[in-house]
């Protein structure tokens, strides 16, 4: 929550600064692909969200963005061809890919959603070689940035290993080392030969941190990636360590402040940065208070459980129950007690996906955000609708919220899709 607030404010700062009379800006183009709806292996929840959020961030920063989500092999080739045409005459090129990837004999491949990999021929006809995009970028532009959140554990590689027999040793774990040419930086979501986590929220750990920091005008790319590395290591308990190879010739800023800005604009920016600092401090204080409230609720729950256990033990022995007095718990009244950001984990029965995660915000009894809309009453009875953007129609949710959690059921009218959900406030 703190990072989201700071990232939003930093984006607003850049927008204010951008209204000045700047010199002609360089042409910056980006290709953003997120593949998650794999047809012949388990789908990935986050890549389409990662791609959509990254594309939106880059557009705000002045990039011309070509975006593709859940692309099959022919769709990926058409989109990459379009990107190659955009690169002509550009000053900066950027690639962001989220989805499955694999390495074979030191060569890295990106995986379209319709790949089967039942035999070795699939390497040439079903996958996309990363070096094709890499070479095209370095041929057309002097400065290039490549982000690869493609090191997830890929079940399709096991299909390929069975078909290759003794040559299966050529299939490596994660992605292989890629060295950049002069003027290029390549960033991996984890170190070479390792696999990355898809994440449990809206975005993967790598994409979430990258999107959060990318709009800060004070951080050049190298500094930004140090922040991303620290965030991801903290979020994954050091299981995942982002890694990069750089041959950049100068500092690169996504949201750069012009070198000779008028004094009035500089003062305006200084004030805005002070607001960012104060907002961070306020958000930190709010988070500490929230965590303290959660701890108090957990302690009260534990105390209540111990009291109930003592009462039951006394009843079994035929003795009067000695129940410890419980400390009173101060609890917000009315619908405001549910205000905050909630994450809902849906588990399906008869749906096309076995499970998914959505986030929304509750404010004064209204449920909104991530396309969800609905209401919650003072006693925690909640209901909302969630449009199905991929398959059409909508899903109806209803349940009961209490404290920082909630449970309930959902169903999609006219289909066998139904199931249960659990909710958590963070």
Could you characterize the architecture of this molecule?
The protein has 426 residues and is α+β, with helices and mostly antiparallel strands. The chain has 2 domains: 24-257, Rossmann fold, CATH 3.40.50.1460; 335-425, Quinohemoprotein amine dehydrogenase alpha subunit, domain 2 (Lipocalin, Beta Barrel). The protein has helices at residues 2-17, 47-60, 73-87, 122-125, 130-140, 156-164, 205-213, 221-235, 263-316; strands spanning 28-34, 64-69, 92-98, 101-104, 107-110, 128-129, 143-149, 171-172, 184-188, 243-246, 340-349, 355-363, 366-369, 372-376, 381-387, 394-402, 405-411, 418-425. Helix 1 (2-17) packs parallel to helix 7 (205-213) and helix 2 (47-60) runs parallel beside helix 7. The chain is globular.
């Amino acid at each position: 929550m703190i990072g989201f607030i700071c990232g939003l404010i930093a984006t607003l700062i850049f927008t204010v600064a951008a209204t000045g009379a700047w010199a002609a800006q360089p042409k910056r183009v980006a290709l953003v692909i997120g593949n998650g709806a794999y047809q012949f292996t388990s789908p990935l929840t986050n890549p389409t969200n990662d791609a959509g959020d990254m594309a939106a961030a880059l557009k705000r920063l002045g990039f011309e963005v070509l975006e593709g989500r859940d692309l099959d092999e022919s769709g990926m080739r058409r989109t990459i061809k379009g990107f190659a045409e955009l690169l002509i005459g550009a000053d900066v090129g950027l690639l962001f890919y989220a989805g499955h990837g694999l390495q074979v004999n030191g060569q890295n491949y990106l995986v379209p959603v319709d790949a089967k990999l039942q035999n070795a021929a699939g390497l040439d006809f079903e996958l996309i070689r990363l070096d094709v995009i890499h070479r095209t970028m370095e041929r057309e532009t002097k400065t290039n940035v490549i982000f690869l959140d493609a090191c997830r554990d890929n079940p399709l590689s096991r299909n390929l290993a069975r078909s290759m027999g003794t040559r299966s040793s050529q299939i490596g774990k994660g992605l292989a080392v890629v060295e950049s040419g002069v003027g290029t930086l390549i960033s991996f979501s984890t170190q070479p030969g390792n696999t990355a986590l898809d994440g449990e929220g809206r975005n993967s750990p790598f994409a979430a941190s990258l999107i959060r920091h990318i709009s800060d005008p004070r951080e050049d790319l190298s500094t930004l990636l140090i922040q991303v590395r620290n965030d991801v290591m903290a979020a994954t308990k050091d299981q995942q360590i982002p890694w990069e190879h750089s041959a950049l010739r100068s500092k690169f800023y996504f949201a750069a402040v012009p070198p000779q800005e008028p004094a009035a604009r500089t003062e305006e920016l200084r004030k805005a940065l002070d607001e960012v600092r104060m907002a961070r401090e306020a958000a930190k204080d709010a988070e500490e208070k929230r965590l303290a409230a959660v701890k108090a609720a957990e302690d009260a729950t534990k105390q209540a459980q111990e009291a109930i256990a003592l009462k039951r033990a006394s009843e079994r022995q035929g003795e009067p129950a000695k129940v410890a007095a419980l400390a009173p718990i101060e609890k917000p009244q009315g619908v405001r007690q549910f205000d905050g950001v909630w994450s809902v984990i849906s588990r399906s029965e008869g749906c096309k996906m076995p499970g998914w995660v959505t986030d929304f915000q509750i404010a004064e009894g209204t449920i909104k955000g991530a396309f969800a809309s609905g209401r919650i009453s003072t006693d925690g009875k909640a209901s909302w609708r969630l449009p199905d953007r991929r398959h059409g129609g909508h899903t109806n949710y209803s349940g009961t919220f209490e404290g920082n959690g909630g449970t309930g059921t959902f169903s999609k009218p006219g289909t066998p899709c139904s199931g249960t959900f659990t909710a958590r406030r963070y």
